[in-house]
Specification:
Radius of gyration: 18 Å
Mean pLDDT: 77
Strand content: 5-15%
Low-confidence stretches: none
Distance between the termini: 55 Å
Largest sheet: 2 strands, antiparallel
Shape: globular
Helix content: 40-55%
Number of helices: 4
Structural class: mainly alpha
Strand order of the largest sheet: 1-2
Order of helices and strands: HEEHHH
Amino acid sequence: SGSKFFNPGNVSLESMIYSHAAKYKIKIHRISLNWSHIHIIFMIPSREAYNAFIRTLTAAMVRAISKYVGKSLKGIFDLRPYTRILEWGRDYRNVMNYHDLNDLEARGSIKRPKKHKAMKKSKNKKPEKST
């Protein structure tokens, strides 16, 4: 499966990300490989550079994963990547800390408790009035 491809020690995947970023003058601040997904903090020179970077990187990843698993996985990235614009300062530090936490979890150094569906639902409900 592709999850082995996204393992935290996959140096070839990190190299691929850095080389595609360099083509478009994108500065990588942090990469976190987390078994089933990737987090990247980066600075882009333009929207066009971002679009070209994402398009060529995902195409290269599909080729590499397809070769790894021995079958074509074209269409694996049907959805656009989740992106968020950060502000310098607290917002940037918080996301960097989140990356640190994610890295520790991906490497098995810590284990965060899973949120149960019942817990998520109860957060949104208003407390019932007792009579």
